[in-house]
Structure prediction request, 181 residues.
Amino acid sequence: MLHRLDRDTSGLVLVAKDQDSFKILRSQFRLGQIEKKYWALVWGKVKREEVLAYPLAHARRDPRKMTAVEAGEAKKTPARSWKALTRLKPLSSSRRFTLLEVRIDTGVTHQIRAHLEAFGHPLVGDPLYGKGRPDPFGLGRQFLHAFYLGFRHPKSGREVAVTSPLPEDLRKVLERLKMRL
Prediction:
């Protein structure tokens, strides 16, 4: 497997069938040539496109979590942190929620979840990064779905784009909010 999804995140994962393909695809990941897009429902109103570029590090108080290292925190920065870039595009909003298209240029553990928490708009239903907010739709998981992967085929070199529809449980939440993709 070339990358993974957080537990309780639905959607696409890229897997290589042989070692040569794995090496080529892994190189594409490292060079930022694989495009990954997600749908995310967050708390609050996000009114414009945003780019979150906070480095991520393991949280000191909770080893299960990553934390965004924001500007001015250099003295508090853990010895090991990873560059991370997350792009947000609002698609729809209703009541206290915004549906986002999220693109990540990097692939750090819990990147989207930690960046959205630091940005003040945690994922709906996220038990770890939700800042104690309730799960208002009874999802039992975060509203995060990897819907698109774009890459070059490791053998032919042609562009490949793969999509995954929104799962039923997440689709029902959008219906309740009268949001459309």
Remarks:
- The chain has a mean pLDDT of 92.
- Strands lie at 10-11, 35-43, 50-52, 56-58, 66-68, 86-94, 97-104, 144-152, 159-163.
- The radius of gyration is 17 Å.
